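Worked example 4.2. Below are the chains of a multi-component assembly; read each line carefully before continuing.
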Amino acid sequence: MDLGTLVQVLDSTLRLATPLLFACLAGLISERAGVFDIGLEGKMLVAAFMAASIAFVSGNVWVGVAAAVAASVGMSLIHGVAAITFRGNQLISGVAINFLAAGITVVIAQNWFRQGGRTPSLSGDARMPRLTLPFAENVRDVPVLGPVYHGILSGHALLVYVAFLCVPLTWFMLFRTRFGLRLRAVGENPAAVDTAGVSVVALRYGAVAICGVLCGLAGAYLSTGLSAGFVKDMTAGRGFIALAAMIFAKWRPWHAMGAVLLFGLLEAVANRFQNMDILGVAVPVQAMQALPYILTVVILAGFVGKAIPPRAGGTPYVKEH
Amino acid sequence: MKGRIPDWADVTLVPLFSVVLAFMISAVLIWAIGESPWAAVKLMVEGAFGSSYGWGYTLYYATNFMFTGLAVAVAFQARLFNIGGEGQALVGGLGVALVCLYIPWPHWSLALIAACLGAAAFGAFWALIPGWLQARRGSHIVITTIMFNFIAASLLGYVLVNVLRPQGSQDPSSPRFPSEIALPKLHEMLAVVGIPFSRVPPVNISLLIAVAMCFAVWYLLWRTRLGYQIRAFGESEPAAEYAGISPARITIYVMLISGALAGLMAVNSVMGEQQRLVLNAVEGAGFIGIAVALMGRNHPFGVFLAAILFGFLYQGGAELALWTGIPRELIVVIQALVILFTGALDNMVRIPIARLFAMRGGR
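Applying the procedure described above to all two chains together yields the following structure tokens:
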């Protein structure tokens, strides 16, 4: 692999990792508060659709992003009502959200645009502009710094940088603020939080709403940044890869970044090379595609360190009377 | 909350009310996209039940959903959520294809028995790993079965592209199965007793196997020792353990049975319809099993009825997409709403019904 290819692969790694990172942090915050969310995929899909269609209609990508976040938070609230208010099964609710998204995006897309469940392709201001970082052009020909700064780090959409900024922000929120402490407590021992006079329901709704915002950004980037328009089922399992990354990272923000970069790299390599030849062994592309899932199963099984979810995860809180 | 509703109402009114809610929201959606809900319902009913052609497709889909619905229901009885029916059915399809392609069968009946065994064994194997990991290593079965769905899709992609694809073919699919082992279709079976039936739909003898499986699962759950243990384990794990039931053993057995049932679906779709293995052989039927099991209240008879309801929705939805501007995905929305109301929001549905009974009781 020559330098040019390497730079290209790493450049696309950052782009492919971005929606995963948003969704992974979204799931992480929700699960830290004790609400399991396997509906990340569905929320991303609805957001991707809303971002593309509203950006197309308005001609402004940021209006599309706002609509995507609103739609995704709306889906989150359905999950919240089912999982928190009515104390339903959080996993089943997540499954329902995924199907709801898969169905309704196509039904509405067909009704609005009549293009077989896709939106028209976006161009100009309806797509997310790529930013050139300061001095990127100046250092272009400097060895090492040039390819890294100009070739890999610069030239992405704003949301790519926002996603990576969300990592320290999430860490700070979870581990350095009062809200974060309470949020983690409500995922471990909601009764204790309740006893302290803090509302379990409000905290969990808060976490679910943040999860919705982040999934909204993930979906918006997918359809307006990574590609130019929405197509049916365009998330293609990314919500589940994000879920896998979250488990792989054992519910920790910095590790989550590492996990999504790894999974993004796998996807970038699988896109670039159909069949890889590693040490004389031909690795089929399907093995690269399956690797994130296999790694997650291995981690969950505790063969390489144990992944222990928040203790109260998945169980609705019933106040004692 | 459950105690205030009589049992008969809990198994009939709650799912019925959920479906009515789901249909009402879908009707609003149809109206919002500028179509007539009433005309849509008429078209769906006529398309699914108005002719033997419609019935044939409805029953074909229902056969798939009976298998996957039973798979989810058996696991739910032990309070295990097997979301991996899709992957288990895919791998089951691989079992069917291997049996049909590599062994020269003299008669379809022998091939059918072998294909059933192959499908069940492959499906059970694909569920065994998550089951074993949950039982012995404590990994969450929902997450592992989701991951196994994706691993199954990759595995199948690899096998179809690199192993089973005939030389020179671009299409990632296996060669056609020999025509001698094509399963008898329903119209051939009904012709024996003199009933005319459309020749087109792919409904075949697997329908009878599916119905037999409904009985078999009922017998297993309510008439055998293992079934009793499964239900006891589902009611209360500590109590079951105290009674000497091994949680690890039950988990593994249940997942084996569940995976085998999901795998059997491939007999209907792969051997009965496509007669070759293709990439998307399952087409989401594994996931529909979740809706079917929830609606059928995890009882085989309920699964039977819910599978026919979803067969109707799928056939009716196909007709809808053919004649109106409503895409097939509307059915996915209805399916999602049924899962939401029967599975996640059932307390919301239950509370007003419970109030109703409380009022009657108060009088």
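Take a moment to check your reading of the output against the notes. The mean pLDDT of chain B is 90. Residues 64-284+293-298 of chain B form one domain.
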